[in-house]
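TA notes, week 10

Several of you asked for a full example with nothing omitted. So below is the full record: structure tokens for the whole chain, then the designed sequence directly under it. When grading your own attempts, check the secondary structure regions first.
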């Protein structure tokens, strides 16, 4: 018995020692590790193809965040399922600040309304870092599409619905959501052709394989300005200063086509607060930099005023946008 007790006590002592030692070892590992974050490159998952608005926004701000934090932000494009594949991977990554997601209104607000088995809850499984940009969408058609304004577009689309091809970046993407609002307001059901992002949609439209798409201004701006595709409508109350001749959906009597997606940076839930604070600070500094503001303005975005920056404001935006979009998307999908 004594032998048994001694053995048990010895084991307990050893276990206690090991546990205590483990805690000490963990503490000595985590505290400096947190303090010296980041000590290696940070991966930013862009859940769409390279060259599209999400990618451009992430690379632009990531470069400046990396500079502030003394590391490199490496973009990894993980397209598929309207951006939910990459967003899911990001939500399930280790919460250590080394894997982030550059998401948007589609992946982090509209997706729950459109995917019953999404696999991540944008309000619970991710930690918002901050809003990066906001942009109104544009209805853009191929160069030789037989319509030059919304009225002609509606007439042509209704008469030729069965042969109309709409390109989008997958169910729940912002190009899908924007055109869903447009189609349901007009009352058309075109063939919806999915791609992994709107950069490949634009290529298909330049090749004449796609008739139209709805994408934030920066997606098609260069090709619109070069005259290779035609912009018919801005889905907002206000015209874009970069495309002053393109009327708004409100001016053209179609206020239901109103879509200005937000773009934000997210970390997995459970990421230490000190790391979120560092990332939010770096994002904020990036947004304050003159070259960043200039570039966003050139791309058709508006600068994000200080009150709308940071984790709390983005968490509120995700929540309010999800609540706003749910009935709209449900109604539009059922039409
Ligand atoms: C892109 O970045 O490729 C698109 O804007 C994605 C989308 O349509 O949501």
């Amino acid at each position: 018995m004594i032998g048994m007790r001694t053995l048990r006590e010895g084991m307990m002592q050893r276990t206690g020692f090991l546990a205590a030692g483990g805690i000490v070892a963990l503490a000595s590992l985590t505290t400096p590790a947190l303090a010296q974050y980041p000590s290696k490159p940070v991966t930013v998952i862009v859940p769409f193809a390279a060259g599209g608005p999400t990618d451009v926004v992430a690379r632009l701000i990531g470069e400046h965040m990396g500079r502030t934090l003394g590391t490199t932000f490496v973009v990894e494009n993980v397209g598929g399922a309207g951006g939910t594949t990459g967003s899911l991977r990001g939500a399930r990554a280790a919460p250590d600040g080394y894997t982030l997601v550059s998401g948007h209104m589609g992946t982090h607000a509209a997706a729950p309304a459109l995917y019953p088995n999404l696999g991540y809850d944008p309000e619970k499984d991710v930690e918002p870092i901050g809003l990066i940009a906001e942009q109104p969408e544009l209805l853009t058609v191929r160069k030789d599409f037989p319509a030059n304004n919304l009225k002609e577009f509606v007439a042509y689309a209704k008469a030729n619905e069965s042969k109309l091809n709409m390109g989008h970046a997958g169910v729940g993407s912002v190009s899908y959501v924007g055109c869903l609002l447009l189609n349901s307001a007009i009352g058309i059901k075109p063939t919806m052709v999915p791609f992994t992002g709107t950069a490949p949609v634009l290529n298909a439209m330049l090749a004449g394989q796609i008739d139209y798409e709805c994408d934030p201004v920066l997606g098609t701006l260069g090709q619109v300005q070069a005259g290779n595709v035609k912009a018919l409508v801005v889905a907002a109350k206000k015209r874009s200063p970069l495309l002053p001749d393109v009327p708004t959906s409100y001016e053209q009597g179609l206020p239901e086509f109103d879509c200005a997606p937000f773009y934000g940076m997210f970390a997995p839930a459970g990421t230490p607060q000190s790391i979120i604070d560092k990332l939010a600070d770096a994002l904020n500094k990036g947004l304050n930099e003159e070259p960043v503001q200039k570039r966003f303005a050139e791309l058709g975005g508006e600068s994000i005023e200080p009150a709308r920056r940071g984790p709390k404001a983005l968490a509120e935006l995700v929540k309010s946008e999800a609540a706003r979009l749910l009935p709209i998307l449900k109604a539009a999908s059922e039409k």
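Residues 48-49, 52-55, 83, 106, 169, 173-175, 197-199, 215, 219 surround D-malate (CB under 6 Å). Use that as a sanity check on your answer.
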